[in-house]
Amino acid sequence: MKVELYNDILKTIKTYNGPGRKCEKLLREKYPNVSDYTLGSIYSFEYQRKMKKNHQKFSKMTEELYRRYQKSVDDGQDVGVMLRLAEEITLSPALLARMILEKYYEKKSEESDEPVTRTFITKLMKDTTLIKDKDLAYEVYLCVVYDDQYGSITDCIKHSLGQEYELRLQRMVKDLNLAFRDEEHLRKHGYDKTPDIKLEIPIAVDGFIVNWIESKALFGDEEGHNIYFRDQYLSYWNRFGPGLVIYWFGFVETLQHQTEKCIIIREDFPINITLMDPKSIEPNLATI
Questions:
Q1: Which has more confidence, 75 or 279?
Q2: Are 96 and 143 within 8 A, CB to CB?
Q3: By three-state DSSP, how is residue 223 classified?
Q4: Higher-pLDDT residue of 131, 54
Q5: Which residues contact 122 (CB under 8 A, 6 or more apart)?
Q6: Cβ partners under 8 Å of residue 19, min gap 6
Q7: In whole angstroms, what is the distance from residue 2 CA to residue 30 CA?
Q8: Cα distances (angstroms) measured from residue 215 to each of 182, 207, 249
Q9: Which of 73, 93, 139, 140 could be disulfide-bonded to 147 (CB atoms 3.0-4.6 Å)?
C-alpha cells in the first residue's frame, strides 16, 4: 500500500469520534478499492494503540469511574450503564468493565474465594456467571459482547483468523509438493520460537533464498512489523537463515526497505518460485 493512502486512512480514523462500528462503515465507503479485511486490520491496530494511551490516563481515575457506575445503578438507570460511560469517555467497553470489576472485588474482597489477581479477573470476564453481583455480571457481559475490538471475543476472532490463513499457507505449500515441518512439529523438538512453516529444502523467491515462511493474517505497518521483527523474525533468522513473511491483508510499502536482508515480505503466496533439486547438488567428498 502506498504511504500516502495509508496515512490518509490513519487520518480518517484519528479524526473520527463516533462508535467504532460506524467508523469501519465510513472507511468502507471512503476507500472502496481497499479490502474490508485490510481496513479492519488498520483500524484495529490504531484502536489498540489509542486504548493503551487512554488506559494509562483513565487507570488513575478508576475510583471515580467506579463511583459513577455504582451511582447510576443505585439510581435505577437502564441497563447498559458501562456501555454509555465507555462511549462518553471514548474507552473500550471491555477495558472499562475490567477496571470496574477489579475495583469492585478490591472493595469487596471478602466476597471472593480467590485472590484478586489479573488471572482471576480474566476468568470472570470470560465467564460472567461467576460474578456474584447480578447487575455487575450483566453489565460486564454486555461490554464483552459489544466490544468487537478489545477483549476475549476479539482475541478469539483474531486467533481463528490466524489459524485459517495458516491452513491456507499449508495447503499452498503442499500443492507445490514442498517438504516442510509445521510449528507443532518444531515445538515438539525443542524449538521455543518457531515459524509457521520450516522448509526441509529451501526455495528461492525472486532470487532470495527462503528457509521458512511466516503467515500473518493482518496488515503490516511499521510499528507492528518492527515488534514482530524483534520478537520473532530475528530469532527465526538466527536459527534457520533468511525467510518469507506474508502479510495477507497487505503492508505499507516502506517495509520492503527494512528487511535488513533477513526476510522478504509479500501480501500473498509468491508465484515466482525456484525449486531446488537435491539430486543436482554435488556431494562433498572431501575428507579430513
A1: 75
A2: yes
A3: helix
A4: 131
A5: 152
A6: 87
A7: 16
A8: 12, 20, 11
A9: 93
pLDDT of residue 169: 95
Give dist(CA 61, CA 113) in Å, integer: 27
List own/partner pairs for 277-280 with CB under 8 A and 24 or more apart.
278/201
Task: State how far Cα 137 lies from the chain centre.
Answer: 27
CA-CA distances (angstroms) from residue 233 to 130, 171, 246? 40, 22, 12
Q: Mean pLDDT for the chain? A: 86
Who's near 108: CB < 8 A, 6+ residues apart? none
Orientation of helix 152-175 relative to helix 134-146, angle to 10°? 40
* Spatial separation of the C-alpha atoms in residues 144 and 201, rounded to whole Å: 45
E strands, the chain, in order: 180-182, 197-205, 208-216, 243-247, 263-266, 273-275
pLDDT band for position 286 (cuts 50, 70, 90) = very low
| Residue 231, pLDDT score | 92
The string of pLDDT tens digits covering residues 79-113 is 999 999 988 888 889 999 999 999 998 887 666 66
* H helix or E strand, kind and range, residue 207: none
Q: Who contacts 102 (Cβ-Cβ below 8 Å, separation ≥6)?
A: 62, 116, 121
What is the pTM (predicted TM-score) of this model?
Answer: 0.82
Look at residues 19, 116, 103, 90 and name the one whose alpha carbon lies nearest to residue 60. Answer: 103
Using CA atoms, how far apart are residues 165 and 171, in angstroms rounded to an integer? 10
> What's the helix, strand, coil split of the chain in %, to 5?
60, 10, 30
Q: Report residue 185 as a C-alpha cell.
A: 512439529
3-state secondary structure of 131: coil
Distance CA 126, CA 248 (A): 29
CB atoms within 10 A of CB 50: 16
275: its cell numbers:
525449486
Nearest to 10 by CA among 29, 23, 25: 23
